[in-house]
Amino acid sequence: MLKIAHHTAYIHPLREGHRFPMLKYELIPEQLLYEGIVKRENFFKPDLADFDTCCLAHSKDYVQHLFALTVDPKMVRRIGFPLSESLIDRERYILDGTIQAAKFALEFSVSFNTAGGTHHAGYDYGEGFCLMNDQAVAAQYLLKHRLAKKILIIDLDVHQGNGTAHIFLDNPNVFTFSMHSAKNFPFLKEKSDLDVELQDGMEDEEYLTLLKRHLEMLFITVKPDFVFYQAGVDILSTDKLGKLKVSKGGCKMRDYLVFKKCKEFGVPIQVSMGGGYSADIKDILDAHIATYKTAIDIFDF
């Protein structure tokens, strides 16, 4: 059974200026149900990740400041959100959602979090509207509990997964792969195990050719037994922040290549949604829903 993490805390209106980008987290499950793609029993509600779990990928000092709402004002500005207890709870739900989804992926091959992909949060910092890194914490959870030995993180958001790279620098058990816009945020990038930088205006054919070649190489050389996939849809040509020119069809084919490779090699995969900032919410929603449809088709749900 396909399992999808969703919790109403994901859609807390943090402040008026950030309500629109958050709207997709409410609309994704509604649209999946409306189109009959999934049923209500496919969803599960995560719990609040506890302090020790949050510290699996983050420093205790940083997490303590988050929980106590005593983060330095400079760090708050770097994060981009005014901190509140409800915001910290939202992040904790996201972390647990990705952990539980990863465990479901071990059972059912693929699973989703309707939010997450908070890849700008590093070991001891938050950045770019990311307080804690859900897939990094979940990866550390799997390793700690010996549920995986070699993890591949595939980050195809238009922005580099700098926080993920920072957390797993020189960690031999986690291979970080980020394929992202070269001249986009973050402007000071970290070093992933493999970074593929893309030039402004890149279209479907070149993008998909690059991705296919690197996926072929990674599954053969890394030999992962678990994959985390950051499936941001800010690669779309309609995205206000993306700088690429990938079509909806190209974005869907991107997902197909990732899921097909996992199916071919028998590797479980957990998916978090990542970014998406098109002017029309329908473009964002269509692309995210296509990711679910593609996974369902490939894994025969």
Automatic annotation (TrEMBL):
Asked if the record carries the keyword Hydrolase, the reply is: yes
Q: Which domain of life is it from?
A: Bacteria
One short Pfam family name for this protein? Hist_deacetyl
The Histone deacetylase domain covers: 21-282
Protein keywords = Hydrolase
Instruction: Write out the similarity annotation.
Output: Belongs to the histone deacetylase family.
The protein's name in its UniProt record: Histone deacetylase
Q: Which organism is it from?
A: Sphingobacterium bovistauri
